[in-house]
Task: inverse folding
């Protein structure tokens, strides 16, 4: 009788283990099919995407990284050839995004909570040059305009704008508010960043269009101008902090349920991302190495996402 009882207990244990394995397999979904994550152009998105990818692998998924443009990625997400895009700046989604979102071919999975910024930035020493900053009216004071004036813009001050092909809006805002400045487009992103870096080193007066997160902001303290009020909600030149979202193919949650739960929970802090960007972009360290180190050091951050995805 004792042996029969042991046999029954063992059989029950195996049954429970089998049920657990089946439940876990069901929660993972199509784990043999790779989840294809969009790799868009900027380093910050590479970091967010590879952290997500490495965590998905911890859950038992296969992951592929697909090179994709900011706008073209939405066609891939709509037809399922791209599974998800982890870092989508909602102020720059083009014409395809709203169409496929309305057709329910893609899904907004939620905010990345990146605390992104876009606007007029200045090195903090500018608060001595232009007393009253960060309020935008401080830029109109004669001593501030004179400090920012250069021969090409005099008597106006010089405002360093985004490269022309980015569709800069600063010139319109300056004109609408009759501010005595000339917006001068940077030749490229590299030129924009190089000028900020050299100006900060020499404590040269500078106000420019910029964004966060950026690797420069891990080593340079900047302020953000409180901009003039927008004319209306429909004002296309109005600059507001951009939302950053996680976007998935509409069939993602059904095909990979646990992966969907992880993606929904995943968040990225701007400060963490900036430090990693600096190591990659300025110190030449490898993306995978930097990302793995963050994962190794931040288990308390990501383990709740894994636990929630596994239940």
Result:
């Amino acid at each position: 009788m004792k042996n029969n009882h042991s046999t029954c207990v063992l059989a029950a244990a195996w049954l429970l283990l089998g049920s657990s394995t089946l439940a876990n397999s069901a929660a993972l979904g199509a784990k043999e099919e790779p989840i294809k994550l969009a790799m868009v152009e900027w380093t910050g998105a590479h970091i967010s995407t590879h952290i997500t990818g490495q965590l998905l692998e911890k859950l038992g998924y296969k992951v592929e990284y697909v090179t994709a443009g900011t706008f073209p990625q939405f066609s891939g997400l709509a037809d399922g050839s791209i599974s998800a895009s982890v870092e989508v700046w909602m102020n720059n989604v083009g014409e395809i995004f709203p169409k496929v979102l309305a057709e329910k071919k893609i899904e907004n999975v939620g905010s990345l909570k990146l605390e992104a910024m876009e606007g007029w930035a200045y090195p903090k020493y500018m608060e001595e040059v232009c007393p009253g900053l960060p309020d935008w009216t401080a830029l109109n004071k004669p001593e501030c305009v004179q400090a920012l004036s250069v021969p090409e813009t005099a008597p106006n001050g010089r405002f360093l704008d985004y490269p022309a092909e980015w569709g800069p809006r600063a010139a319109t805002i300056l004109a609408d508010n009759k501010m005595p400045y000339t917006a001068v487009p940077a030749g490229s992103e590299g030129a924009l960043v190089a000028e900020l870096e050299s100006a900060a080193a020499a404590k040269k007066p500078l106000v420019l269009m910029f964004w966060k997160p950026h690797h420069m902001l891990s080593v340079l303290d900047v302020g953000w101008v409180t901009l003039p009020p927008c004319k209306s909600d429909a004002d296309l030149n109005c600059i507001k902090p951009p939302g950053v979202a996680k976007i998935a193919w509409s069939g993602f949650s059904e095909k990979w349920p646990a992966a969907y739960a992880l993606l929904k929970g995943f968040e990225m802090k701007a400060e963490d991302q900036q430090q990693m960007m600096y190591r990659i972009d300025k110190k030449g360290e490898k993306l995978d190495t930097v990302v793995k180190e963050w994962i190794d050091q931040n288990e308390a951050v990501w383990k709740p996402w894994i636990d929630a995805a596994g239940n």
Summary: Confidence is low (pLDDT under 50) at residues 6-23. The chain has two domains: 27-114+243-310, 117-224. The radius of gyration is 25 Å. The CA atoms of residues 90 and 243 lie 5 Å apart.
